[in-house]
Amino acid sequence: MIDNTLEALELDKRLNDVQKKQPHSDKKPDISKYEDAVAELPNGSFVAMFDIGDQIIIERYATCISTCPWLDTRTYTVLDINDDNGDIHLWHDESRLRFMGNYITGPTGGDVYKRALVKPKSARRRKIATNES
């Protein structure tokens, strides 16, 4: 048991050293302008704020490492939603692969779920100059 703990600590230290030498977090996109895709209700349960066919952005972190480094941020199309357990089936256009996520355990584990649509800014009315003499 102690050997496993020491190995895990050593691996964690090595991963932290690698991350310091080759940080890729400067490539991390800013997704703060997007709406949350998951809402937490007062009773502690979670609700998906997206439907089948919508696109969502998932920002993943390696929570098994003490520094929780950012892994990637990808946009997926939602293929199926299981409201009973939170499982969602996803499609990633770039890689042409299916993925699976969970809108309950994902955000509680540190991942960020956002809707890919940005609310349009309210249209500003332009003043029309009139030449009244």
Summarize, please.
By secondary structure, the protein is α+β, with helices and mostly antiparallel strands.
What does this structure look like?
The protein is an alpha+beta fold. It has a domain at 27-115. Helices cover 18% and strands 31% of the residues. It contains two helices and seven strands, in the order αββββββαβ. The chain has helices spanning 2-21, 105-108, and strands spanning 38-40, 46-48, 55-61, 70-81, 87-92, 97-102, 112-115. The chain has a five-stranded antiparallel beta sheet with strand order 6-5-4-3-7. It has a two-stranded antiparallel ribbon with strand order 1-2. β3 and β4 form a beta hairpin. It is globular, with a radius of gyration of 21 Å.
Care to count the β-strands? 7
Relative helix content: 10-25%
Distance between the termini: 91 Å
Main pleated sheet:
5 strands, antiparallel
Strand order of the largest sheet: 6-5-4-3-7
Order of helices and strands: HEEEEEEHE
Q: What fraction strand?
A: 25-35%
Averaged pLDDT, please? 81
Q: Quickly give the structural class.
A: alpha+beta
Oligomeric description of these chains: single chain
* Low-confidence runs: 121-129
Could you list some keywords that capture this structure?
alpha+beta, 5-stranded antiparallel sheet, two-stranded antiparallel sheet, 31% strand, globular
